[in-house]
Amino acid sequence: MSVAAFFKNIQGGHVGLFVLTIVVLLAIFAPLVSPDNPVRSDLRGRLAEPTLSLTEMGSAPLGRDQLGRDILSRMIYGSRATLLVALCAVVVGGIVGVTIGMISGFSGGILDRILMRITDIQLAFPLMLLALLMVAAMGANFFNLIVILALTSWTRYARIVRGEVLQLREREFVLSAVAAGASAWRICVRHILPNIMAPIIVVATLELGRVIVMESALSFLGVGMQPPTPSWGRMLAEGRSYVSRAWWLAAFPGLGIMLVVLSINLIGDWLRDVFDPKR
C-alpha cells in the first residue's frame, strides 16, 4: 500500500482512537511519565513560562501555575481523575438506562408509561442544574460525583433501548423463546441484549464525551473534584484570573478537554457508521 493510499483510508475515528489511546496510556502510567509531583509547589518558579529546554533545572514544558506547580504533571494526573470519573459514570448510567429501557420496552402497559414519563421529566430538566442541585444535596466527592453524573445520563440509554426492544420483541426468535417457555429475564439477556449492543456502544461512546464536559464544568464551578486532586476543569478555573499575563494556565487544560472530547466524538461517529450497514 502506498503512502497516499494509507492516508486516504484513515478516517476521523482512527485519529480519535489514536489520540484517546495516548491520553489513556499517559493516565495509566502517570507516575512513570510525569516529570514532577503534581501537587508540589515551587514559588520560585511561580508563573514560569512554557519552555522546550529540558536541560534547565526545574524546567516545565507547559509552564507553571500561580503556585509554581508543573502544569504538564497536573495535566497528566488530571486526565486520570477526569477519565476515571467519566468512565465509571458512563458504565453506571448505561447499566441503569439499559435495564430500565429493556423493562419498559418488553413489559409494555402501565409500567412502560410510568417509566417513560419519569424519563421525559428528567429529559425536560436542565442537566447541569440537576447536577448542581444533587451536588448541593449529596456533597462533592469522588463517589458522589460518579453517582450524580450517572443519574444525569441514564435517560438516553433508556429511550434508545426501549425503541430497539419494541422492534425486537415481535421478531420470530423472540416469539419462539416465549413459546418455549423462557422467562422474560432470559429472553432479554440471552436474545434481545446481544442484538442491541451496537447502538448501546455508540451511545456510551458519545455519552463519555458529554460526561467529561459536565465533570469539567462542575470542577470549574468548584463542586467537582476537590483539591489537592488535579482536575482539568479546576485548572481552567484557576487559570482564568491569569489569562492576561499567563495564558498557558487556562490554554492547556482547555486544549486537553477539547482534544479528548473531539476524539471521543470522532470515535462515536465512526462506530455509528461501522455498526450501521446502510451507512
| Highest CATH level, the class | Mainly Alpha
What is the number of strand segments?
0
- Gross CATH architecture: Orthogonal Bundle
At the fourth level of CATH, the homologous superfamily is: MetI-like
End-to-end Cα distance? 25 Å
The residue ranges in which pLDDT falls below 50 over 5 or more consecutive positions are 3-8
Integer tally of domains: 1
Q: What is the overall pLDDT average?
A: 83
What's the CATH topology label? MetI-like fold
**Would you list the SSEs in sequence order as H and E?**
HHHHHHHHHHHHH
Overall, the morphology is: elongated
Descriptive overview:
There is one protein chain. With 279 residues, the chain is mostly helical. The protein has one domain (73-275): MetI-like fold (Orthogonal Bundle), CATH 1.10.3720. The chain is 70% helix and 0% strand. The protein has 13 helices and no strands. Helix 2 packs across helix 13 (248-275), helix 4 crosses helix 7 and helix 6 (127-138) runs antiparallel to helix 7. It starts with a helix and ends with a helix.
